[in-house]
Structure formats: structure tokens, C-alpha cells
């Protein structure tokens, strides 16, 4: 079995088995995702070609290097060192023909196709349900988690609960089960990509952004009316279809609540969207979803989440202790009711955050400036823009417990 061992960079110490095709880059849909601004979205890939592994640079901005030499195409030899951005990976081969690649295999009544993306809890594949001859998505629990009873139970139980729901912005669940030790959730197939990848875009229509926010609020309203809440809403739990529709997924599947030990890039990613209640792991409620939705709204409208840091602990501390910069200081051309709405969603006090119903009502009554059809927003930057760097961050007052209700 051939594999890459990370020798330097944020993924140092991790090992990645190579498949017939393995992609490297910033996108979360890549097989090896490296959160480094020096990498292109899809930087390079490794192909199994006639029993050999061929490294190809995908016209990356900063190049792919083997043993210190920039290459476009290179047959790999054991011991070769591949450098992309600030990460160096060692190519090794072991005397084994076994790799855990589910593509082409059958799990129950599903023929597994191409892997779409990785999640800390599962791997998502395209698949075909052989009994009905239809395309589906198959989420297969990560193998090292199958013996974690709490996680396994939550993975299957939440699928059964949300499988009873029917709302156009919730990813529909068809089936859940186990076959030969592989635990899976079968979902409707949608053409598109995770919002985490879609946020790599540049110029976006303001109305399109507002439609995205509105659809997310509709999905959350349906969940909250059923006494369910998402718990850890991030761009990875939102699927953006090719028709610009939103599908919310992974309800209740929270890596943070499960206490998963994540690699630095994943830990940083999830920290940016964590509500104060999730960080404390207590008093989670629908208002916790609204806070995370507020973070997403801020990012969609400003181009970057409000809190940045060198490590997850620094980001989480800001969620607990600091108020984010007012959105109007970053995007002053936005309508005042919209910026004020996002600011309310990010209140440290859950009782002061608006409900999903209130958010929908405000968005529907919003009047957009005709001269601002597009917002110039550059997403997925790893460093804060000057506007956010210079925006004031104020220490938040501690939450007080009282009986008043949030805006309806």
C-alpha cells in the first residue's frame, strides 16, 4: 500500500493512504485538504498509472515540488518528498495490496461510487441504489468510530429522527443501516457541492446571498418547530445545489460534542462557527443554531468569519469573551436593517438572539438598494482583511439569566 506521511505543516504526523486518484488542495472536497493560502483550491493530484504513482501539478499558483525541484509531472519513488505550500509529504510504499477504498464496492443494496468529501464523522460517496436504480448519497461512518457506542448511536438515531422530516431545504434521508461492519446513511442525491467549497468564489450577487440565508432560516425553523436543533452549523453541513438551492444536513452530528480529536485544520474550521453554548457544552438550544447562522451570514456578507486566531483555543476564547465587529463597519453599503439583524444573531446572550421566524420576516420585508446588485466579497481568505483587522472588538458582558423572550 502506498501512502503519504506528512513531515511538516499543520497536518504533521498524519498518514494518508493513496487511492487510484488522490487530490491535494484547499478545497474540502479534496482527498487531502490543507488549509494553507499558499495552495491552490485544487493544487495537485496523484494517479495510480500502470502500477506506478504519477504526481501531476494542476496548474497551481505556487507549484508542486519533488525533492526540492518544481515539477509538472513526476513518477514517484519510495522516499520522495513532495512539497506543496508549507507542507512536506513523504511518499512510501508498503508490501500490502489492501486499501480501504469503498469506491466500486457494494454496501447492502448500494453500489458505492466516487467519494465527494470527507467529514470528521463520515465519508460521503456518490452511490447507486440497485433495487430502485436511482442515484443517492451514501455517508459511511469513519471506521475508527464504529466502536464508539455514543457516536454510533447518535449517527444512526439522528438519521432516523430527521428521516421523518420533510422540508425542501433539509437533505432527505432514505435509509440507515449496517453491512459487514460499515454503518451508513443513505440520502437524496443532489448536484452541487458543500458551501465550504462554494465560499471559494469571489463576486456574488447580494440577492443570491440573501436567498441562501433565507433558505437556511427556513430549514432551522422547521427543525426548531419539531423540537430539534442542529447543534454545530458550519459551511460543511450546508450543501449548495447547482440550482442555487440549499440543503441542510448532519443535524445533531456535532464533532465538538462528541469530543473528537481533530487535526489542526479541521479544529480551526469548526471553531470559527461554534456558539458559546457549544463551547461550554451546556444549555444548547435553537438560539445556539441562530448564533452559528449569524457567523455564516457574516462570512457570506463580509467574506470572512468575524473571529480569527492562530489556533482553535484563541478563536473559541473570542467567541466567549469578545463581541464581533459590527457588520456595518465591514460592509457599510449594506441595508442597515440587515446589518443590525446579523449583529443581533451574534449576541452573546441567547435570549437576545432572534428566532428563525423573526429572521425570515425581516428578510422578506428587506428593501435592497438598486445600485448594489453585487457585493465585492472575496471568500475563504485565511487572513483577516484590513477592514476586519481595524474593526473594534469589545469585551462582551457575561450573559444574565432572565425570563424575557427573544424576538419572535
Question: How would you explain this protein's 3D organization?
Answer:
It is a single chain. With about 400 residues, the chain is of the alpha+beta class. It has three domains: about 1-95, Tumour Suppressor Smad4; about 105-185, Phosphorylase Kinase, domain 1 (2-Layer Sandwich), CATH 3.30.200.20; about 190-365, Transferase(Phosphotransferase) domain 1 (Transferase(Phosphotransferase), domain 1, Orthogonal Bundle). It is about 25% helix and about 25% strand. It is built from eleven helices and 24 strands. It has helices at about 150-160, 195-200, 205-225, 265-270, 275-280, 285-300, 310-320, 325-330, 335-345, 355-365, 385-390, and strands spanning about 1-10, 15, 20-25, 30-35, 45-50, 50-55, 65, 70, 75, 80-85, 85-95, 105, 110-120, 120-130, 135-140, 175-180, 180-190, 190-195, 205, 240, 245-250, 320-325, 375, 395. The strands form six sheets. Strands 2-1-11-10-7-8 form a six-stranded antiparallel β-sheet, with no helix packed on it. A six-stranded antiparallel β-sheet has the order 12-13-14-15-17-16, covered by helices on one side. Helix 3 (about 205-225) runs antiparallel to helix 10 and helix 4 packs parallel to helix 7 (about 310-320).
Amino acid at each position: 500500500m502506498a501512502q503519504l506521511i506528512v513531515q511538516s505543516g499543520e497536518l504533521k504526523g498524519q498518514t494518508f493512504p493513496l487511492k487510484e486518484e488522490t487530490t491535494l488542495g484547499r478545497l474540502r472536497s479534496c482527498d487531502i485538504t490543507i488549509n494553507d493560502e499558499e495552495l491552490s483550491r485544487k493544487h495537485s493530484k496523484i494517479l495510480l498509472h500502470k502500477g506506478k504513482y504519477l504526481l501531476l501539478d494542476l496548474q497551481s499558483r505556487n507549484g508542486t515540488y519533488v525533492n526540492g525541484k518544481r515539477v509538472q509531472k513526476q513518477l514517484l519513488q519510495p522516499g520522495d518528498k513532495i512539497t506543496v505550500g508549507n507542507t512536506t509529504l513523504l511518499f512510501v510504499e508498503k508490501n500490502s495490496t489492501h486499501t480501504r477504498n469503498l469506491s466500486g464496492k457494494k454496501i447492502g443494496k448500494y453500489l458505492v461510487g466516487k467519494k465527494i468529501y470527507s467529514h470528521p464523522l463520515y465519508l460521503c460517496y456518490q452511490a447507486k441504489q440497485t433495487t430502485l436504480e436511482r442515484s443517492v448519497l451514501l455517508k459511511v461512518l469513519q471506521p475508527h468510530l464504529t466502536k464508539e457506542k455514543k457516536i454510533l448511536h447518535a449517527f444512526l438515531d439522528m438519521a432516523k429522527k430527521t428521516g421523518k422530516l420533510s422540508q425542501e431545504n433539509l437533505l432527505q434521508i432514505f435509509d440507515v443501516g449496517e453491512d459487514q461492519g460499515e454503518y451508513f446513511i443513505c440520502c437524496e442525491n443532489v448536484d452541487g457541492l458543500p458551501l465550504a467549497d462554494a465560499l471559494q468564489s469571489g463576486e456574488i450577487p447580494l440577492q443570491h446571498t440573501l436567498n441562501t440565508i433565507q433558505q437556511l432560516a427556513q430549514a432551522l425553523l422547521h427543525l426548531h418547530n419539531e423540537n430539534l436543533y442542529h447543534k454545530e452549523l458550519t459551511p460543511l453541513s450546508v450543501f449548495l445545489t447547482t440550482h442555487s438551492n440549499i440543503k441542510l444536513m448532519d443535524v445533531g452530528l456535532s464533532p465538538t460534542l462528541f469530543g473528537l480529536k481533530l487535526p489542526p485544520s479541521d479544529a480551526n474550521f469548526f471553531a470559527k462557527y461554534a456558539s458559546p453554548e457549544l463551547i461550554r457544552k451546556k444549555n444548547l438550544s435553537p438560539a445556539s443554531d441562530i448564533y452559528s447562522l449569524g457567523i455564516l451570514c457574516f462570512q457570506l456578507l463580509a467574506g470572512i468569519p468575524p473571529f480569527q486566531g492562530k489556533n482553535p483555543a484563541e478563536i473559541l476564547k473570542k467567541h466567549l469573551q469578545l463581541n464581533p465587529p459590527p457588520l456595518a463597519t465591514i460592509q457599510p453599503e449594506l441595508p442597515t436593517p440587515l446589518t443590525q439583524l446579523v449583529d443581533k444573531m451574534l449576541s452573546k446572550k441567547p435570549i437576545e438572539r432572534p428566532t428563525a421566524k423573526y429572521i425570515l420576516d425581516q428578510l422578506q420585508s428587506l428593501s435592497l438598494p438598486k445600485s448594489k446588485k453585487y457585493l465585492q466579497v472575496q471568500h475563504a481568505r485565511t487572513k483577516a482583511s484590513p477592514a476586519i483587522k481595524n474593526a473594534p472588538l469589545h469585551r462582551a458582558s457575561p450573559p444574565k439569566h432572565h425570563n424575557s423572550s427573544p424576538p419572535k
